[in-house]
Design brief:
5 helices, two-stranded antiparallel sheet, alpha+beta, two-stranded antiparallel ribbon
């Protein structure tokens, strides 16, 4: 199949990539959903996931589009959401009391990595979904390639 993709005309290759994206992307999102993501993982990884096809690869991406309702960019959170974060990460800032009776400043220390969860080298959403998705994507791409090839005039 890969060897044939080198020699196929551009219009047929374009049809394969366009139709392949339309068939493979819903399958990828379905596999991500089967990993039972929480709200943050769904917002960062599932809703922003995209698929693109080329002659020699199927490229999966997530976290590259848009902003979350909080204003954060998904790409800034994607790694932590998938693999977790060090739970010891803390942020310190100064808090100012209301002006009545007398304003005062004091230091507040907060743990900031809680929503992301503990570290997991095997991943939480994407890597388990990838294990289920790769054979399915290869089958879909191959079937679609032969379907497109049957449409080419003069090829049996």
């Amino acid at each position: 199949m890969f060897r044939a993709l080198k020699f196929i005309e551009r219009e047929w290759l374009s049809a394969w990539t366009k139709e392949g994206r339309q068939k493979i992307e819903p399958e990828w999102r379905d596999q991500l959903e089967r990993s039972r993501p929480n709200r943050l993982q769904r917002a960062v990884l599932v809703r922003t996931s995209r698929v693109s096809l080329s002659r020699n690869s199927i490229r999966l991406s997530a976290g590259g589009t848009g902003k979350l309702s909080s204003g954060a960019r998904p790409r800034d959170l994607a790694r932590a959401v998938e693999f977790g974060q060090d739970q010891g990460i803390k942020t310190r800032y100064y808090r100012k009391d209301p002006p009545v009776p007398a304003p005062a400043k004091h230091v507040v220390t907060r743990r900031t990595a809680r929503p992301v969860g503990p570290k997991s080298a095997k991943g939480k959403v994407v890597w388990p979904a990838l294990g289920r998705f790769v054979p399915r994507a290869a089958a879909i791409a191959t079937d679609l390639f032969y379907e497109i090839l049957r449409r080419v005039p003069g090829v049996n």
